[in-house]
Design goal:
By secondary structure, the chain is α+β, with helices and mostly antiparallel strands. It is built from eight helices and five strands.
């Protein structure tokens, strides 16, 4: 643990807790669980989080979503002064890192290429992840012997 943690109270554990629910939109799994977080550096109240994706050619819009989500979550930690997110070993690592760290939108970071509204894309993948989890649950309930009529009558 860096000695600066003693002065600020910001710890690596706090950073990992803050980013624990940042998802890979395609895999619908936490970046932390997937092992995509390469490093967390704490220098006084300044935080740097570096992450790597499993492929060099991962879609830039997905990489941008993940980087932006990481930044937003780390910024919620009390006492944080600045946050830098670094995407490593990716075909657009410089554009993603610079864009996210300077507060640009995806289309501003990729002016000649981007047309996507990332919020719409985020919602699409959140819905898909939810439907996959529902499907998994329903299949497990069927395997456990719950009949279709009972499944259809279930309510939250």
């Amino acid at each position: 643990m860096p000695s600066s943690d003693v002065f600020t109270g910001i710890t690596e554990a706090m950073v990992y807790t803050a980013i624990a629910d940042v998802l890979d939109p395609e895999l619908d799994e936490s970046l932390v669980k997937l092992g995509f977080i390469d490093s967390v550096q704490i220098n006084d109240r300044d935080i740097i989080v570096a992450f790597k994706l499993p492929t060099y050619w991962c879609a830039p819009n997905f990489a941008y979503l993940m980087a932006a989500d990481l930044r937003n979550r780390v910024q919620t930690i009390p006492g944080v002064r600045s946050v830098r997110i670094l995407l490593l070993d990716h075909c657009t690592d410089e554009e993603v890192s610079t864009g996210v760290n300077t507060g640009k939108s995806f289309t501003e970071a990729f002016p000649d290429e981007a047309e996507d509204n990332l919020e719409e894309l985020r919602l699409i993948f959140l819905r898909k992840g939810f439907l996959v989890r529902q499907d998994t649950l329903l299949r497990q309930l069927q395997k456990a012997g719950v009949d279709e009529a009972t499944l259809l009558s279930l309510r939250v």
